[in-house]
Amino acid sequence: MTGAGPDGSLLLDVKDLSISFPSRNGMVRAVNQFRMSIGHRERVGLVGESGSGKTVTALSILQLLPTATVEGEIWFDGVDLLKSPADHVRGIRGRQVGYVFQDPLSALNPVQTIGAQLMEPLRIRGVPRKEAFERAASLLDRVGLNNPKERMKAHPHEFSGGMRQRVIIAMALIAEPKLIIADEPTTALDVRVQAKVLDLLVELAEERQVAILLITHDLGILAGFVQRVVVMYAGRAVEKCSIQEMYHRSIHPYTIGLLGSVPRLDGEIPIKLATIGGQPASALRVPSGCPFHPRCLLASDRCREDEPLLTTPPGGQHASACHRAGELALNPGVLPEPVVAR
Amino acid sequence: MSSVLLRVENLTKDFPVRYLFRRHEAVHAVDHVTFEVRRGSAVGLVGESGSGKSTTARCIMRLIEPTSGRILFDGEDVTSVEGPDKKRLRRSMQIVFQDPYSSLNPRMWVEDIVSEGLRIHKLVGSDEERRARVIELLELVGMERAHLRRKPSALSGGQLQRIGIARALAVDPKLLICDEPVSSLDVSIQAQILNLFRDLQQRLELTMLFIAHDLATVRHLCDYIVVMRDGRVVEQGSREQVYGDPQDPYTQELMAAVPVPDPELERERRQLRRRLAAAADAARKA
Predict the structure, then answer these.
(1) Nearest C-alpha in A relative to B159
(2) Which residues in chain A are closer than 8 Å to B195, comparing Cβ atoms?
(3) By C-alpha distance, which of B277, B212, B253 is closest to B51?
(4) Chain A contact for B252, CB < 8 A?
(5) Comparing C-alpha atoms, which of B209, B142, A12 is closest to residue A4?
(6) Which site among A127, A152, A155, B217 is 20 to 30 Å from A341 CA-CA?
(7) Residue A231 predicted with pLDDT over 70
């Protein structure tokens, strides 16, 4: 992996993260014993369906969850953010870690000019106005907006969705962060604009040596974007591997089912998509044992009782939280025959 | 009986744009659109937001009035039918909407939602007959008798969309229009609903007009494709033709933009996108 820094350190190392929210029926655990890491300059995808806990995980890194109880360790650049004073975390937000939100319109202030919003992180750091203006304008130019100096005076409503997302990307980059968290950055965009925005993000990340955590439900957009993937289900990491491994040699029934659910633009058209029955587990009622067992065609008694840990089967390339991962590893990427026939 | 169920001819819909001090103008939301839907086929209407695909569907259903053009349905000109004829038309065309949360009445029982059309069009005699029909419809879409006395708030997104489909099928329509019926659902649930559509297509010999922005989904379900941009049809043809060998530069660009779940392929496709974008730029400058 491009991963570790000069001293072998990771940029982000999340250990045993648990996130709970108060509810009428006591605490609800949205994320449970979650671990993941990102190396310097590495691009990692966090995939899951709605309610899998991917967004709260990302928000917890910057401590943007005021009502939640967050336990565990979040090491960023050698410091545990969960044990750091609020000042330190504030210094990281926007400067060390940039955030690209799903909906660019609600992430921008409607009554401030684009320029003022873009320059804000620099101004807070004490960069002189003139220099901040020049840097902001040149970044707008870089993300593909023509006539950037004029655009700086415009307000968000004057921009199209794709242009707004480009502005958000510029905002995330302006303070030269080490990590960008992009939470469903293109779900609100049309497909051609989506491709352009994603291609731009990859280009910029390589050019500026920034690591990216891409959060998405769309397995397609990961393919050209990240090097490594963490698949989440019911607040847990259920599979962790390289992007090639996930697409071609997955050893978790959820991931395999999810991949089969996506209609494709190439190849034969299947009569039925090999989908997963039932509905995604809710944090309010996480099933016993393996949280995926009610939807899993391979589930056995053991799966109903005891929760599998994320482990790498012997000789394997990647980790899976499935009691039958060893079996799946013999013929990765497919579910065993008799099960498919059912 | 002609093999063509629906023919849209030069359909145009203008929306007025009013200015305070300038002359009022019109936006051509749909601009001389012509296509046909054959009986038993599934036609995909694709395009990005603002391309006029939903407006086209709404005109066909007469939910909004077209500015000009003709709509021929089942051998009959229905462009301006009114009264009982319009009611009859509504029975033969049904629509499934994108967002099941806002298209089902939250105060109604599932049973009443599904049977409303049966009552309005007086398709069943007794209460027993009506209930039997509703149960049959629920089972058809993969739901159960137990769901009769539920309200939408007690159901998940995928289940709600199944109810929306059952409601549309209740009156035995000749044409089912689906406006982005899976785009608000989770990936695994999308696949369940797509499988349901495939199943219904085969069992009921449904004729479908399927509106979507997702080209892969449309490829999965539809045998004929109409591509729209800015209110116009830029390309139409069979699935093999449009996906295998797209002619219009816009269609080509659209196809290249769809991510393919394969890291090696996707790297090549990024190069293709760069080339297409460069070619489009050059064409604009020339």
Answers:
(1) A279
(2) 272-273, 275
(3) B212
(4) no
(5) A12
(6) B217
(7) yes
SS3 B8: strand
Give B150-187 pLDDT, tens digit per residue.
999 999 899 999 999 999 999 999 999 999 999 888 88
What is the reported pLDDT for A256? 93
- Quick check: B3 contacting A, CB < 8 Å? no
The lowest-confidence range among A6-10, A92-96, A116-120, A308-312 is: A6-10
CA pair distance A189, A111, nearest whole angstrom: 23
Nearest CA in chain B to A202: B270
Residue ranges of chain B with pLDDT lower than 50?
none
Contact A237, A230 (CB under 8 A): yes
Q: What pLDDT shows up at residue A275?
A: 83
Please report the residues numbered 309 through 338 in chain A whose beta carbons come closer than 8 angstroms to any beta carbon of chain B. none
Domain B4-105+173-244 has CATH 3.40.50.300: yes
Q: How far apart are CA A289 and CA B96, in angstroms?
A: 38
Answer whether A225's CB lies under 8 Å from A43's CB: yes
pLDDT for residue A170: 93
Identity of the residue in A195, A247, A271 whose CB atom sits nearest the CB atom of B262: A247
Among A50, A263, A269, the residue with its CB nearest the CB of B186 is: A50
Contact flag A265-B215 (C-beta cutoff 8 Å): yes
Instruction: Report the first-to-last Cα separation within chain B, whole angstroms.
Output: 50
Q: Alpha-carbon distance A238 to A208, whole Å?
A: 31
Could you write out the DSSP letters of every residue in A118-169? HHHHHHHTT--HHHHHHHHHHHHHHTT-SSHHHHTT--GGGS-HHHHHHHHH
At B213, list the tokens: 């922005």
CA distance B162 to A56: 30
Q: Write out pLDDT tens, residues B95-138.
A: 999 888 999 999 999 999 999 999 999 998 899 999 999 999 99
Quote the CA–CA distance of A302 and A305 in Å, as a whole number.
Answer: 5
Round to whole Å and give the CA distance between B94 and B102. 17
Strands B4-17 and A79-80: unpaired
Report residue A4 as tokens: 């570790």
In 3-state terms, what secondary structure has residue A7?
A: coil
B chain contacts of residue A199, beta-carbon cutoff 8 Å: 270, 273-274
Distance CA B136, CA B65 (A): 35
Q: Check residue A293 and report its DSSP letter.
A: G
Please compute the mean of the pLDDT values over residues A212-231 and round it to a whole number.
92
Q: Comparing A60-64, A81-85, A194-198, B58-62, which segment has the lowest mean pLDDT?
A: A194-198
Q: A18 pLDDT exceeds 90?
A: yes
Residue with tokens 């695909």: B53
pLDDT tops 70 at residue A7:
no
Indicate the domain borders of chain B. Answer: 4-105+173-244, 248-286
CATH of domain A12-226: 3.40.50.300
CB contact under 8 A, A261 and B269: no
ipTM entry:
0.84
Rounded CA separation B133/B114 (Å): 9
Per-residue pLDDT at B269:
86
C-alpha radius of gyration, chain B, whole number: 21
Ranges of each domain in chain A: 12-226, 231-263+273-341
Is the predicted pLDDT of residue A338 greater than 80, yes or no?
no
